[in-house]
Design brief:
Strands 1-6-2-3-4-5 form a 6-stranded antiparallel beta sheet, with no helix packed on it. The protein has a 5-stranded antiparallel beta sheet with strand order 9-8-7-10-11, with no helix packed on it. It has 3 domains: 61 residues, SH3 type barrels; 61 residues, Nucleic acid-binding proteins (OB fold (Dihydrolipoamide Acetyltransferase, E2P), Beta Barrel), CATH 2.40.50; 57 residues, OB fold (Dihydrolipoamide Acetyltransferase, E2P), CATH 2.40.50.140. The model has no long low-confidence stretch (mean pLDDT 89). It is 0% helix and 54% strand. The radius of gyration is 21 Å and the shape is flat. By secondary structure, the protein is mostly beta strands.
């Protein structure tokens, strides 16, 4: 069993009967009183982030996890099919395990985090950036590049994002999947 000295970002552990991942941590040694560790813990099942303070030396139950590369194949019902890039083993993942499924594109390689002892998928991390084609947006007008105004656009994954006024239907753009934002136009 590990202690609070082993806490680091990305560490998975059992806390109050739930699987959580450490998002942030800070070891604090006040001038008066005992040391403690302040953490932000993300519930793996719900995605909710909570603050928790552990006394220094507190025992924690660390969970062994594995990151495995899987290629996204296709959606089916309320989930998605993925294929391991080395073994070609296919796995069905429920929609709630993927943070932003609207940005998944066929053929994208994602990282699936598995609980190593139970072979249970915990979280699907999609690529940080994707290239997408704008399938619909209002037409741009010449000279609209001077302002920072944005307009809605639909991309080929079906997601709707905000793009600058100079982007037109058919343009290829780079999208930040974490923020769900346009980052740049892709040159052909």
């Amino acid at each position: 069993m590990a202690s609070t000295a082993d806490i680091k970002n990305g560490l998975c552990m059992k806390h109050n009967g739930k699987l959580v991942q450490v998002v942030e941590f800070l070891h604090v040694k006040p001038g008066k009183g005992p040391a403690f560790v302040r953490t932000k813990l993300k519930n793996i099942e719900t995605g909710r982030v909570v603050d928790h303070t552990f006394p220094s030396g507190h025992k924690i139950d660390v969970i062994r996890i594995e990151n495995r590369p899987y290629q996204y194949l296709y959606p089916e019902g309320d989930g998605y099919h993925f294929m391991h890039t080395d073994t070609y083993e296919q796995v069905f993942i429920d929609k709630h395990l993927i943070e932003k499924p609207e940005f998944l594109k066929e053929g994208d390689v994602c990282t699936i985090i598995f609980h190593a002892e139970e072979e249970l998928p915990l979280v699907v991390n999609i690529p940080l950036f994707i290239e997408a084609e704008v399938t619909y947006t209002e037409p741009g007008v010449k000279g609209d590049t001077a302002t920072n105004t944005m307009k809605p656009a639909t991309i080929d994954t079906g997601a709707e994002i905000k793009v600058p006024l100079f982007i037109n239907t058919g343009d290829r753009i780079k999208v930040d999947t974490q923020k769900g934002q346009y980052t740049e136009r892709v040159k052909s």
